[in-house]
Amino acid sequence: NEDLSINDTKDTNENNSVQQHNIIKKDADEENIDLNIIEKDADKENIDPNIIEKDTNAKNKSIYIEEIEALTEENIRLLTAEQIRELEPNHITALSIDQIKSLEDWQIKELSPEQLDNLQIEALEPNQIRVISNDKIKLLSVDKIKTLNIFQIPKLEVSQIQSLEPHQIQALSVEHIYSLATNQIQALSVSQIQALRPDQITALSVAAIEPHQIKALSVEQLQALETHQIEALSVKQITELEPYQIKALSVQQLQTLEPNQIEVLSVEQITALEPYQIESLSVQQLQSLKPDQIKVLSVQQLQSLKPDQIKTLLSKLEPHQIGALSVPQIQSLT
Question: What does the alpha-carbon distance between residue 255 and residue 284 come to, in Å, rounded to a whole number?
Fold first, then answer.
């Protein structure tokens, strides 16, 4: 019996020695923690080993962030594709501006949408941002879109602009819209155009808008156009406007139209104008009206005209139109 007791004690001491060895090894190398020992010890203390593992991972992650922050630009360029993909969101957030600028194009391509959303994306050089795929750029959050700088926007590929969702387009600032290149504006889809806020519309280069795009503008968007933008509308753009869009123009906008813009208005566009809009036209603008445009002027439109406007149009009016003039208008002619 004494021999058995001695042997048992010896075995126990040997087991304790193994455990102590593993624990010492854990202390020496925190990244190689023996979770079996921890779990065994945790069972004795009624502690959930998952909590211990979670705390251990958190500690390792914290150390890893410090390592990320310590990486030089040269170190950053040496990161492999696998290492880039394994970076956690908070590791990405920890990257400095200089570290971000040192990323190679192929490394940027490896970043996931989640990683991109945690990156200081405004720190990317304009040429770096061009390598982000369309599938990823369309997944950027609104808040991330807002952080893009005005030097990056013009460098976006046309396909990247086209991949933006309407709500992302709407998130762009007025300064972003100002910075759009002509080919980028012309690449905007109808749904993207219709997503633009009124203040974004005022920042848009009207000369760059395609006729089919201006046709897609809502009444509110059209009314947001500044007078200098109305004046800049091409003949082709004017002819593409729907009658209801012409009708939506304010007096100030109509008065900005040049004679060459007035003369291309269709019969349908002319008839859509309210009497007060016709009345707001200058003599010079009325003089640019062609016979087929004048012929469709309604009684209500004609009766809104002032004496000097009547005199301008009188020689071109049809007999029934002259007959529709009011007594005061006729008297003003003498």
Answer: 10
Highest mean pLDDT among 26-35, 55-64, 81-90, 256-265: 256-265
pLDDT digits (tens, 9 = 90+) for 214-237: 999 999 999 999 999 999 999 999
Q: Which residues contact 233 (CB under 8 A, 6 or more apart)?
A: 206, 214, 261
Report d(CA 291, CA 212) in Å as an integer.
28
Cα torsion 132, 135, 136, 139: sign? positive
Q: Do residues 220 and 193 lie in contact, with contact meaning Cβ atoms separated by under 8 Å?
A: no
The whole-angstrom distance between residue 91's C-alpha and the CA centroid of its chain comes to: 26
Integer Cα distance of 287 and 274 in angstroms: 19
Whole-number Å distance between alpha carbons of 265 and 260 = 9
Which parts of 71-181 fold into alpha helices (H)? 73-77, 81-86, 89-94, 97-101, 105-110, 113-118, 126-129, 134-137, 142-147, 158-163, 166-171, 174-179
Supply 242's token pair. Answer: 């729907």
What pLDDT does residue 36 have?
52
Rounded to whole angstroms, the Cα distance separating 107 from 290 reads 63
How far apart CA 128 and CA 197 sit, in angstroms, is 29
Instruction: Indicate whether 28 pLDDT > 90.
Output: no
- The residue-averaged pLDDT of 301-329 equals 90
Alpha-carbon distance of 157 to 131, in angstroms, equals 9
Instruction: Residue 123: count other Cβ atoms within 10 Å of its Cβ.
Output: 18
Integer CA distances (angstroms), 208 to 6, 104, 152, 238, 286, in order? 95, 34, 19, 14, 28
